[in-house]
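Cross-check.
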Amino acid sequence: MAVLGAGLAGLNAARAIRAGGHSVIVLEARHRVGGRNLDHPIAPGKVAELGGEWAGPGQDRVLGLAKQLGVATFDTYSAGDSVYYANGNAQTYSGDIPPANPAALVELEAAIVELNNMAASVPAEEPWSAPKAGSWDQGTIATWISENLHTQEGQNLASLAIRGVYGEEPTEISLLDVLQAISGVGGDFNTLIGSAQSIRFVGGPQQLSQKLARRLGRAVHLGVPIRAIEQGRHVTLHAAHQAFSARRAIVTTPKTLAGRITYDPALPPAHDQVLQREPMGSVPKVNAIYPTPFWRAAGLNGQAISDTGPIRITYDNSPPDGRPGVLVGFMEGNDSRAFYGAAPAARRQAALESFARYFGPQALHPVGYLDLMWAQEPFTRGAYGSFNPPGVLTSLQDPLLEPAGSLYFASSDLSAQWPGYMDGAIRSGEQAASAVLATL
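Predicted model, tokenized:
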């Protein structure tokens, strides 16, 4: 058996195949494991996460894996007030409700209730089978927001929440896709924007992949980009100067990269079409490092939401003991695309100016700074994950859930439960391995 990709989907698939009594090889294009998990050391035993980092209640697969591998967890820092920046003014608040216009808050709460009610009729496994799937898939979540929220502030907050989930503009995303995501996390939109970001991993989550890879040993091969896959009596996977043969293969690369592999014979048209039509979001992730989390002394928890970019969402990303202090922020959708051609120094300056708007001029002077433009990563090409524009789910459904000959597919975006999260990646990898093992 062969597995493409050494992220959580691929490594858990490989582990399950080996546990089923079969040999396996894992081929990773990068010179590291972890996929969209990437942690950067900032002090002995401490990291700043440049990729995925959070978990939350109900994410049993990833939390269970961490416990099994001896990776401790801790709560995202939340003591103190949050910052709400709107119309050029910063206000602080406690709890989950920002000090927005009361009319905006009322309609925002009503919108969340309505989205949850709609999602209750959408099966996470087969969203296209929902009674109103056809009409819901014709429009974007942006259109729905404009039709159901009538204050500008309410629309801004709703759009901010969607960007925070997808890393993409609401104008690009099918309403049905959003409803499927809500269904996939248990039926409450608040989970997507709240509790799913409540748990972190001591030392960072990339070590989950690193520990799994060590257990797989020499089965994991790094620096091996697969350019072509040939199916005959066996599956042959071609790199630039190597070829690997297996009875079956599981492809766990991001969908946009899976679509760039040359297949012989060609993939079935539905598989090929969906790989063309499900793009990635666009998000650089920024970490600014300070000697201490100075915002805590001011009674702030490091969390901010804003109507002004390029960073509109922030968290306290400090290690468990608070030394050093780290602020993390995200440039999402069009805010990120504005910096595609910019120098790294310009992106840094814009990020620090955003932090300073929320936490004061001290934020302009970090002792360290890290960011990563995931859309420029050659073996990722975007973040947070893929999404469905209008019409894709109902016209194509999800052909990647079925094999193409001896090829199987897995990724966090293919999981009905916790799609787009580390937990979903683990589930998808396990499900693909189970499907493969059933044929052997």
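The domain at 101-193 is CATH 1.10.405.10 (Guanine Nucleotide Dissociation Inhibitor; domain 1). The two ends are 10 Å apart (CA to CA). Passed to J.P. for a second look.
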